[in-house]
Amino acid sequence: MSQINVSSLTFGYEGSFDNIFENVSFSVDTDWKLGFTGRNGKGKTTFLKLLLGEYSYKGIITASVYFDYFPYRIEKEDRQKGAGEFLEKLKPGVEQWRVFCEMEKLGLGGETLYQNFDTLSFGEQTKLQLAILFSGENDFLLLDEPTNHLDQESRETVKEYLRGKKGFILVSHDRDLLDACIDHILVLNKKSIEIQKGNFTSWEENKRRKDEFARRENEKHQKSIGRLREAAGQRKQWAENNENTKIGYDPVKEHDRPFRAYIGAKTKKMQSRAKQMEKRIEKEIQEQEGLLQDIDEIRTLKIMPLKHHKERLMTARDYGLRYPGRKQPIFEGLDFEISQGERVFLTGSNGCGKSSLLKMIVEKAAGETLYEKEGRPVETGEMELASGLIVSYISQDTSFLQGSIREFVRSRELEESLYFALLRQLDLDRSQFGKNLEELSEGQKKKVLLAASLLTPAHLYIWDEPLNYIDVFSRIQIENLLLEYCPTLLAVEHDVRFQERTATRIISLDGKQRNL
């Protein structure tokens, strides 16, 4: 057992207005299963890179362990090989038998190590990298969003696998995963860094109580400051009125009035009491400072769904998709319908056709071309969409985002001031508005797409894994939005908590449906 000690850490990217970390100090035990969370853009991935020594920084980071990081950087030329051929590049000195042992725990056959990496599904690639990562000895492991893009079954496998491990930092916004796998949590708050024993839910409950206490204390201080200011104002007025009594004083004619010296002494005493109250006000203000600095308000979002003249927006009968030249269909025999106000979630394993189905619906409704001509699947069965159906689509892919945010807003024909206000509500800092989209974190890119969809009036919102990389607080915002405005939604999203709270129906691409 050893510790990772961070002392007076300061770091900011070149050209950035603000530092990401400013004089930060804390310690982490290498036996901990440490969850790491916080708002997008707060520096979670950056901190992992600092531990790996990839950036220069001010301050001190000391550790007596070797760090290894997920996901691995796999070179383009290696992606056409089996991982067994470039294993030494990923983890020098690793023994293959150890990798095989970890692969078995993750439900992977030994042959996976020798298949061309690019031919593996995303879930298989993730599991294989995790098996390699955990096959070393005495490494302290840094896992950066390991369940993004994974289907529910793969997420459960990874969750059970990590539950039995120790000695890692897990960056994740998946509340279910954090609750299952960690015994300590590190949170980047608005103005501070906090480490607690427990999982995400225990931290969230402690945070709620702490925030409530801070609000009550702040309210008490505000009331006390108000009373003191009122009293200080009265004493100043009394002192002024008393001082004015010296004006026009004639000691011969008005021998019964107090002497000027007495009036002056009394005024001085009143002024002294007023100054004492002002000092008490300053003390109250100082005690109040910082009480609300870490309260992360979940701001209310709005959406403008359109009302269609038909209750049923789409119907699929014995529907399927098949790539040209392939015998095996992507899926087939799918029967379902979507009515207004429903929030329907698609489930199924990676590669079962969830994204393909969403793209096909968008193409048919909006006339957009989302497939390359030669890669467009062939339809079987029937799909009917209501006439004049307007859809708002979020792709799981963010690689197409280029140029400035203002250029993106103009291309979507959105109201710029409303769009930027919505980004602020999603906690995207104004300092990010001047950056090119390529410079934003993956979570910030997702918020750019979410904000555009929310501002687009539509009959049907089609979202493909909209929450990948999105922080927990923003996920809660979206949950509250869906429950309040009840837009018609067809989505693929593997966040169990989000799905359980917002879905009205779940459809698996094997044809099974579940009403909630």
Distance between the termini: 46 Å
Number of β-strand runs: 18
The SS-based structural class is alpha/beta
Tell me the overall shape: globular
Secondary structure: helix percent: 25-40%
Summed up, the helix count is 14
Main β-sheet description: 6 strands, mixed
Strand composition percent:
15-25%
Radius of gyration: 30 Å
* Global mean pLDDT: 84
Uncertain segments = none
Arrangement of strands in the largest sheet: 5-6-7-3-8-9
Write the layout of secondary structure elements.
Layout (H helix, E strand, L loop, with lengths): L2 E9 L9 E9 L3 E6 L5 H8 L6 E5 L3 E5 L16 H4 L5 H10 L16 H12 L5 E6 L7 H12 L4 E4 L3 H7 L2 E5 L4 E5 L2 H45 L15 H29 L23 E11 L8 E9 L3 E5 L6 H13 L11 E8 L5 E4 L10 H7 L4 H10 L16 H13 L5 E5 L7 H14 L3 E4 L3 H7 L2 E4 L4 E3 L1
Word description of this protein:
The chain is α/β, with parallel strands linked by helices. 37% of the residues lie in helices and 21% in strands. The protein contains 14 helices and 18 strands. A 6-stranded mixed beta sheet has the order 5-6-7-3-8-9, sandwiched between helices. The chain has a 6-stranded mixed beta sheet with strand order 14-15-16-12-17-18, sandwiched between helices. Helix 3 (96-105) packs across helix 4 and helix 7 packs antiparallel against helix 8 (260-288). It is globular and about 110 Å long.
